[in-house]
Design a protein that fits this description.
Helix 1 packs parallel to helix 3, helix 3 crosses helix 4 and helix 9 packs antiparallel against helix 10. The chain is of the alpha+beta class. It folds into three domains: about 70 residues, Arc Repressor Mutant, subunit A; about 80 residues, Glutaredoxin; about 80 residues, no CATH class. The radius of gyration is 24 Å and the shape is extended. Strands 2-3-1-4-5 form a five-stranded mixed β-sheet, covered by helices on one side. Helix content is about 50%, strand content about 10%. Bound molecules: FE2/S2 (inorganic) cluster.
Length: about 260
């Protein structure tokens, strides 16, 4: 167990009154999920599993609801990141104004790429969509503070200032050593292959993980096998869907054979 995990109960006890104050501001407690997650991130440097479970507990939702909400927002980190998070804009206005040269300068100076953290755990780097300051392109943010009209020649000085503790923006809290990337592999795998979770690990490039492919049929068969004692309505629908799926597949096979 890491030092951070050991210290989590104390952090939770310290933040609980603030969490309760936040929750009281909303008609529906669930609406407090994001500000509570931001609060934990401010103190942990990222949103830990422990934080998500504690928030779910306080708000009366399942941990899966907390995790799926957190995973939707790229400014909430589910893994530790650097004390400085550098985000360079790759939107159209910035790209036209030389963002690629700025990115290249960061890659060379930091020795890392998109969604990666330097080996010393100090600086995380990512390329982001339009930061809504197109009139000052090329833009970047360092710990969410804007840097406007950025040119490649400034990169060296920015990174040196971060490394020497002289950068104008305060470092983020860091309670756990970051890994090379904070991107979660399963999400990365889904994004790279453009496949749904049901298709991960299957060999066919045509398998999108939907109900009409092999894993989908296996899933339907399993539901059907559970018998009438298990979700009758689902079973009936599943039986019908399974029949429909088989019919479509047979039809498809027939038309392929005819050609
Ligand atoms: S394109 Fe970079 S701020 Fe809009």
């Amino acid at each position: 167990m890491s030092e951070r995990q050991e210290n989590f109960p104390a952090l939770l006890a310290r933040l609980k009154p603030e969490c309760e104050r936040i929750i009281a501001q909303y008609e529906n407690p669930r609406s407090a999920l994001l500000p509570i997650m931001q609060l934990f991130q401010e103190h942990e440097g990222f949103v830990s599993q422990e934080a998500m479970h504690a928030a779910a507990d306080m708000l009366g939702v399942t941990p899966a609801v907390a995790e799926s909400t957190v995973s939707f927002y790229t400014l909430l980190y589910r893994r530790p990141v650097g004390k400085y998070v550098v985000q360079v804009c790759r939107g159209l206005a910035c790209t036209i104004n030389g963002a690629e040269d700025v990115m290249q300068a960061f890659h060379e100076k930091l020795g890392v790429g998109h969604l990666e953290t330097t080996p010393d755990g100090l600086i995380s780097y990512e390329e982001v969509e339009c930061l809504a300051a197109c009139d000052r392109a090329t833009c970047a943010q360092v710990n969410l503070e804007f840097v406007y009209d950025l040119e490649p020649k400034q990169v060296d000085g920015m990174v040196t200032a971060m490394r020497t503790g002289a950068y104008a923006v305060a470092p983020r809290v860091q309670t756990e050593e970051p890994a090379r990337t904070w991107s979660l592999p399963r999400l990365g795998e889904v994004a790279r292959g453009r496949r749904s979770a049901g298709a991960i690990g299957t060999e066919s490039p045509d398998n999108a993980g939907g109900v009409g492919d092999e894993p989908g049929i296996i899933m339907l068969d399993r539901i059907v096998e559970r018998g009438p004692s298990f979700y009758d309505a689902t079973r009936e629908r599943a039986v019908q869907e399974a029949k429909d799926v088989v019919a479509v597949i047979e039809e498809e096979k027939g038309s392929r054979a005819a050609h």
